[in-house]
Queue: 4 jobs
Job 1
Amino acid sequence: MLIGPNGSGEFNQQSAIDNQQFTDQLIAAVLNSLTVDVEEWFHICGVPLLQSETWSRLPSRVEQTTRMLLDELDAAGITGTFFIVGWIAERYPKLVGLILAAGHDVGSHSFWHRRVYDLDRATFADDLRASVTALGAAGTPAITAFRAPEWSINHRSEWALEVLVQQGFTADASMAPLRIVGDVSYPRGPYVRSTPVGSIIEVPPLVADRFGHAMPMGWGWGLRMSPPAQVLKEIERANKIGRPAVLTIHPWELDPDPPRVPLPLGLRFAHYFRLDGFPGRLRTILRGASFGPLQAAASRAGSD
Ligand SMILES: [Zn+2]
């Protein structure tokens, strides 16, 4: 329950108005986060057809689709955080420059876009270092935020948080409070994770409860299938308790002519379900709430 600004539990018309104003001010004070995972349409983990040896032979769409997304965010007056795959930063440094020039923050989305829990500690450390090197060579300032491919930091790979701390990262956005890819027991708002070598702020994505289950509301099929009004209602619900909502978009979700490959059912759903009309729905969502970089949400850590 929200306590009104006058601290009174008595109900009268004036306190109802005060409470409403208090709630409105609280919602206005919370800046949500708009994040982008900059990857190719073929950066899908665990698909033999799409192993890294094939990447340079596949048609690239990332420059065109990221530019579309940059235009959308520019039109909406939003800056966010772009988690860029190192392999892309190395091949398309000018694209990294465009993202920076538009005022966005940049983080790492790994170098080879592999699930963290499939790697050992040394391999993850090397991959992370390679991504930071590639981003730095493309002109980024120090990289301090990370998002793992497919939310792959969970109970199988919590050691990765130590590696992130050791390499100077201060924020991670890889642990989803969902059963399928993470754990429903994870907090739904930004919080501090302690590791033996120091702490890091964990910034989870927006989930919502539907039919007794948590579902991805801020990204992927959940974001694409939900009417904008419903997404905005869930954002407001989070903001009312002082919690920022974190959305995640992929440039390939805006592709007007996306290449496709046969995928197992779960991945097909995650990648291809309800792409039709998504740019228009996204436009409505972006104009219906306030968004900023991940750092804005991270700064509210511990408010849970
Ligand atoms: Zn990814």
Job 2
Amino acid sequence: MPLRVAIDDAVERAVRAFLAADTTRERGGFLVGRLAARTGDATEVRAFIACPDAPSTAVSLTFRAEEWQLVHAHGPVACGAAGIVGWVHSHPSMPVEMSGRDLFIQRHFFSDERQVAWIRDPVDGGEALWHWTDDGIARAERVAAEGAGP
Ligand SMILES: [Zn+2]
């Protein structure tokens, strides 16, 4: 069953603006919210921590100790408590597939299958959500945020 992910409108706007601010290189950050409590529930993304200083190139992004400290400042991820629920980064003018480096990050730092990797191409607007499963990487499904209109 694919993970369902609900992203707040304010986060959507903030992420789009941040990723589009520089399309010559990848940009990214962390997603804060609540993990799905049960199978069938949605992981909720409620805040975005931009990492403007994370070293990057046109085709890669690196989270250093400085960036991970932002994650630790938000505490451990637990059911029902706000915490890091995933990460987002741009693939300017590239397919929104998980690269080898992206897979490494997901497997080692976001391996809970309720945590999401959100990849967006700020140039053409393409995007995809991914999550780790027992069978490896798989697509997650975007659903409307609670309280959002039709
Ligand atoms: Zn990537």
Job 3
Amino acid sequence: MASVANIGGVVLHSSFLGNKLKFKPLSLSIPLKKQSNTRIIYGEMLRFAHDLFVGVGVGLPCTVMECGDIIYRSTLPKSNGITVTVPGVILALGTLSYLWVTPGVAPGFFDMFVLAFVERLFRPTYKKDDIVLGKKLGEGSFGAVYRVSLARKPSSKGGDLVLKRATEYGAVEIWMNERVRRACANSCADFLYGFLESSSKKGAEYWLLWRFEGEATLADLMQSREFPYNVEALILQDIQDLPKGLDRENRIIQTIMRQLLFALDGLHSTGIVHRDIKPQNIIFSEGSRAFKIIDLGAAADLRVGINYIPKEFLLDPRYAAPEQYIMSTQTPSAPSAPVATALSPVLWQLNLPDRFDIYSVGLIFLQMAFPGLRSDSSLIQFNRQLKRCDYDLVSWRQTVESRAGPELRKGFELLDLDGGIGWELLTSMIRFKARQRISAKTALAHPYFDREGLLALSFIQNLKLQFFRATKQDYSEAANWVVQLMAKSGTEQDGGFTEAQLQELREVEPKKKSSAQRNALASALRLQRKIIRTLNESIDDLSRKRKSLWWSRWIPRGMK
Ligand SMILES: Nc1ncnc2c1ncn2[C@@H]1O[C@H](COP(=O)(O)OP(=O)(O)OP(=O)(O)O)[C@@H](O)[C@H]1O
Ligand SMILES: [Mg+2]
């Protein structure tokens, strides 16, 4: 039943409309040619919206029922309500949950177009001349960090702010800190302002300002022989009246772990993966009596694809997960922002990029439990041993436990407290496959953090534990299959697998003996892939340079 609608002189044909829709003509001040274009666009949009609504069964009753002409309808009781149908409701709910699921397309739009805008109107701004440099706190490859104070408000001698003068990754760090301040301010150091300063001698630099949170990072605190007792006074209101020993240390480590996971859950829920979680990047905030995350220069915002460059990584090898990449390396580069936004929930579920950070937190947990693994050299040695055990913590334990010295034994004893609940959590964080690692949110609900009845697990706690064990089972095969299928379909010119994936396959099934012929073929294939990859990377690099900094035009320029 075709029908006709007239919009501003545009006639719409619709097979669903039972009568003519009449609209007032659009403003005539638009030039004729433009007007007709605009009309066609409006017309198309209206038709699309109408068909969509009718198609899913949500719409005005008559359009849904297709009940014929106006005379018949006029005899029916008049209703302006919306008819709700089961498929319509399912589709609406599905769309809504898609838009809200991690990393959150809908909250992302609200954040970018409303919150960011409003915040910009009200927040205080700073410029170079406002800042008085103090002591240098650190210097990395991409910038230096100073303790500073404000010229107009000379505060305590040391300065109550921190300034980072960054070159390469400064823009990314400003973006991430602003996102965090709006979405999960308690997760990271309190960020004040960031701007591009082009008058410095070294060329353009990004200046970032935070509130000074405190003197010590978790790395500093862990280096002390007193750890974890030196943290106890800082984070727990009252000193526990337990005697010094494993139980008391366990309580303190529990609290630190809970704070780390809470901070990380905040970041992950808003679609940010840190990628450089390590004790040096965790600061103790004296004001909040809690640990906070710093140094977001390597972070990736998966909501809009910022700083997500699959083939590039700036990892600290001591704390990096074995996969090294947070996303499938088959994705050549971040899609454009609207596409990345629309696809972000799918990409997130397929890759689970947050589990990269979970591995690093797992290593921090390990270091806190085992005093013998707190030094760099011992951590590197542990990483080597774990790799030899195919990243299976249980077999690592079997290998080392029989000949363990007192420091290692102490760690196992601590984790074995309360029916081995700490060991259970640790093994669910340090796993080869990202998909089998626990998420920050689920970890926070782990029975390890239950304070009551830890020594004798109650029936409910046991049930919870069984549930966690069951959910840890390997359910990754189906997901892997989908990822591989998607990966191969788009990358024929890459020859199917990347070097990283070949490596992964090699590590999963390393035992097969291969003939000399097969080896030669494999080498030839590898060489071919290497050449193609290098070419692709150069092209990626070019296109990335063109589009990767589209968002940095929002960063304010420093004023004189
Ligand atoms: N908000 C803050 N409050 C107190 N100290 C801070 C703050 N931010 C950074 N710091 C100190 O500055 C150091 C360096 O900061 P950050 O990790 O962000 O920079 P970086 O580029 O990684 O430099 P580095 O390579 O020296 O770590 C930290 O280890 C910490 O001691
Ligand atoms: Mg750092």
Job 4
Amino acid sequence: MSIIDFEARAASCATAAPQPTPLVSLRDVHLAFGETEVLKGIDVEVKQGQAVSIIGPSGSGKSTILRCITGLLRPQRGAIEVGGVRVDGLRTESELIGLRRRVGFVFQQYNLFPHLSVLQNLVISPVKVGGEPRARAEARARELLAKVRMEHKESAYPGELSGGQQQRVAIARALALRPELILFDEVTSALDPEMVGEVLTVIRDLVQDGLTCMLVTHEMRFAEEVSDTVYFTEAGRIVESGSPARLFGAPASERTRAFLQRASGASAPRKGAPDPIETYLTFDPLRLAV
Ligand SMILES: Nc1ncnc2c1ncn2[C@@H]1O[C@H](COP(=O)(O)OP(=O)(O)OP(=O)(O)O)[C@@H](O)[C@H]1O
Ligand SMILES: [Mg+2]
């Protein structure tokens, strides 16, 4: 199809104005650990190219929502779709690997492979999981390192990098499998303040490039700046959602207002020791591929 055909088709689609199907949709998602209900009817939609932030108090279920989207956790009720695939219906390891090639996930703990150089950290999954020729994977890895401004460190080992540098490499590694969607779970919470900005700059660039992103963050100003939609969670429910201007400027709920007031008074909570559950659940395509 020529560019002109493509433009004509795009124009005719525009006049028909169909609502784009969301890339991600959660409908009435309920999840409990034993007797403890953690998600109590979550509805979220993310359209292609959007950046959506989830904010809310500690323990309100933000990370659990992201883990459900990657298939790491399975809800007891409700439906989760990513790109037309029912995630809650996936059963086999190979189906889950298929999903995780499409959904990148970056955590607070960067979990780079310590015995591999920066470049090899980016190359290993596309080669071993994606079956890409090594030379092509290396060329792409170099492009991605340039994107996260880490091209000068391709031969370094993770232990030789600062936290912010490691997190930027972790973002590049998540991009190496060419995901359609990337999930960021508090990726700056473990960083020293001076490194937060460099990681946020990388995420801002990705959002501007049109990559579909979901961000769980305590960086309220950043969420306000980059998001198309913000969701506020409390005790396993979405209290409200809306444009950042509306949610931050004129929150409908008293609970959102109180949370935002507390968040603006205190700087972002920083965490110390890694959460063992998070470490255990960390997405590692190689582990899954075994
Ligand atoms: N594997 C698990 N087993 C039992 N309870 C869990 C498990 N994972 C999470 N929880 C509980 O579920 C609730 C929601 O946890 P979640 O990690 O989603 O919160 P969060 O909003 O991401 O919090 P934070 O801002 O501190 O990261 C918490 O009460 C947590 O203790
Ligand atoms: Mg969390």
